[in-house]
Known about the structure:
4 helices
Amino acid sequence: xxxxxxxxxxxxxxxxxxxxxxxxxxxxxxxxxxxxxxxxxxxxxxxxxxxxxxxxxxxxxxxxxxxxxxxxxxxxxxxxxxxxxxxxxxxxxxxxxxxxxxxxxxxxxxxxxxxxxxxxxxxxxxxxxxxxxxxxxxxxxxxxxxxxxxxxxxxxxxxxxxxxxxxxxxxxxxx
Length: 175
């Protein structure tokens, strides 16, 4: 229950940080750019997948805005591009790393300045306990903000594993 409250608090904090750190809004999306913006988000995630395959930590961190937050299971939130860069460096250092994600839903606000993707992922990485490759799969939601140059950067990236957690052995208290 405590873990659920922690995850919920992190999501609320992420939403608050995203709302408080808004860049100036681009012009309204009234010129018929909605479909182009949706495609731009799809293209961004396709390129992001390619960069995961190339294991380029710098390119991976550049998908995030400077004030972004990354929330992944079993870790504290990585807030800011520098913290996210450290997470990506750690990920790509794993020789077993393989990650592929695909959006099943892509939405862009009518204002044209915010969008999000929702989808699923498959990942293989080295289990820290056994040092053997392990498979993970789950869901994600990534919120994007359109940048002044027209690119899209992630401002909140939330990953939820669907793999059950291993039970934790109870600790004995010393008297």
